[in-house]
Target: Peptidase, M16 (Pitrilysin) family
Amino acid sequence: MRRRPFPGALPTGARMFRQSLLWTSCLALLAGPVACAQTQGGKPVAKSAVSAAPKLGAGIESRTLKNGLKVIVWPDHDIPNVVLYNWFRVGSRNEYPGITGLSHFFEHMMFNGAKKYGPGEFDRVMEANGGANNAFTSEDVTVYMDWFPRSALDVIFDLEADRLQHLAIDPKVTESERGVVYSERRSAIDNDNMGALMEQVQATAFVAHPYQFPVIGWPSDIESWRIEDLQRYYKTYYAPNNATLIFTGAVTPAEIFALAEKYLEPIPSQPAPEPVRTKEPEQQGERRIVVKKQAQAPLIQLAYHGISGKDADVEALTLLLSILTNGDSSRLHRRLVEEERAALRVNTHFSPGFDPSLVWVYADLPPGADVAKVEGLLTEELARVVKDGVSDAELKKARNITLSQFWRSLETNNGRGRALGAAETFRGDYRQLFDAPDRYERVTRDDVRKVAARIFNSQRRTVGWLVPADAQAATPDSRKEASR
Model:
């Protein structure tokens, strides 16, 4: 993630957990915005917020250019501004040992000069025209965002065409950005306990699939990318036929399509990237990892093998996680934070992607906390929902919060750009976005119980503890030793 202020940044490392999980919410606009709903404190939004929602999809048009670039336009002329989301279907799942972190690295390189606009010019020209920009990288995609007045349309198209076709991969710039990324890794992972534990749990949970790789990359790979690695990656994945452009705001489809044909259609397509063929084998038993670091308090994370963004259970899982951790009356908060006072906060996280990803349950603990006790409380509550399901009231509340946040997210051009792009990219058709409310309405209590049983299986779980390096707290291994 570039270190620039912008709406809805993708959190990195521990920030992915501690902030509002805005990246999850952007995907979950088609699969349930749990993360955004958490900012409402668990209180249902007034019914008027839902009834006042705009008619979904009005005026949207899409076109695929001759080079394979898809362009989708959602007009809204309330204010004279435009939002552009450029979705590239490349992330850490497209990497392999030796080049991990390269997708994230290109997020930096794409702002460092091309043929017409040299180093620093992309930002300078955009800001001179009243615009701003940023980008984020995930396991599945790299996304670039521009916000600008409609008067800057031609300039923005020129900037984007230049870096899509003629990015400068200069050795000096590469070395400079390598240092920036390494510094970012130290901040988000190496020097952050939540991020460090998350990285180790993910690498333990996946043994075959490239979701095991950290998005920011392993340290030795960051140090050793070669220029030819960058050139090959850019040519393969930064091709018009591997991207989707989403325009929302004060534009018409006709003018956007005309500008796209002028600036972007001449850029040649490339052979389609090789698909990711590796599938994660079924996990046959619980895995555990303990990280010892200098820390004031322990942490715990449970990661269960989950589902992909196209799975029919996405909506039921989204509502289940809301019931578990959304607000002060949620099950895990009430039990662990309010009643037992065993944790400072408890959360869940699921980011639907191209392939089955992890469902996280994690907690921040007070100094000296008994991690084994907290783990027992977490697994006990998860087992209870598997056995007994959820109540009508819990399901209704989760659905109300989720749908209210869905409508709110579509009130802004930025939210629409994120949602359309996520639906087109992960569902394969942006129109699937507009079916989301109906999909949530169809979820039953039995659906929620069944998805809980499907996900919260101890045989498919990886448990991670982070314990202070100088603490005497029992770890799973030390408990085994003591019992012998």
Observations:
- The chain is about 45% helix and 15% strand.
- The domain at 287-483 is CATH 3.30.830.10 (Cytochrome Bc1 Complex; Chain A, domain 1).
- The first strand starts at residue 61 and ends at 64.
- The CA atoms of residues 220 and 343 lie 35 Å apart.
